[in-house]
Specification:
With about 170 residues, the protein is mainly beta. The protein contains one helix and 13 strands.
């Protein structure tokens, strides 16, 4: 938000073993095996030094800065596999680093998180909840608005969205 840092997503670097295997088999790719996890990073534009903010067995799919630049909300799922989008979670982490805090329970999909201008709310798109291996509620996107200080999973407002745009004209 202040123009001094940029947050970005980058895949995990290949291991030595993966590099060796790639050289041996050429450009062949095994679907759902060779996918790399993507994580959240921040680069300081003055020093040009990048820092990784997330680690672990999950795949980050989207991010948004808080208006004050102190926190980053991000969506993530267990793996890069497409079906895992219905097991996504919304979390937030301090822009200076630290342990991420889950804001949703990972039983549905989460996309396009957006902070309110005062930093108290996070809106995100969600469609479908996984129950017993089945995805329920697929169809129109639902906008869920969560208060920054609400308990995990607390929904302050939920409604349908055809084409959602914030006050700044961005979705």
């Amino acid at each position: 938000p202040d123009g001094k840092q940029i947050a970005f997503l980058a895949p995990d670097a290949p291991t030595e073993e993966e590099e060796k295997e790639k050289k041996e088999r050429g450009d062949a790719r095994v679907v759902d095996r060779d996918d790399k996890m993507t994580h959240l990073h921040v680069i300081d534009l003055e020093t040009r030094k990048a820092r990784r903010l997330t680690r672990g067995r999950f795949h980050v799919t989207g991010l948004t800065w808080s208006p004050d630049g102190k926190r980053i909300a991000f969506s993530h799922q267990p793996t890069p596999i497409a079906n895992d989008m219905f097991r996504a979670t919304l979390s937030e982490v301090s822009a200076s680093g630290g342990r991420p805090q889950a804001l949703t329970d990972g039983r549905g999909d989460v996309a396009s998180p957006t902070w309110s201008s005062d930093g108290r709310w996070i809106a995100f798109l969600s469609r479908g909840v996984r129950r017993g291996g089945q995805v329920e509620g697929q169809g129109d996107d639902t906008v869920t608005v969560r208060a920054g200080d609400a308990k995990e999973g607390a929904k302050v407002w939920k409604g349908q969205c055809g084409a959602c745009h914030g006050a700044n004209g961005q979705g």
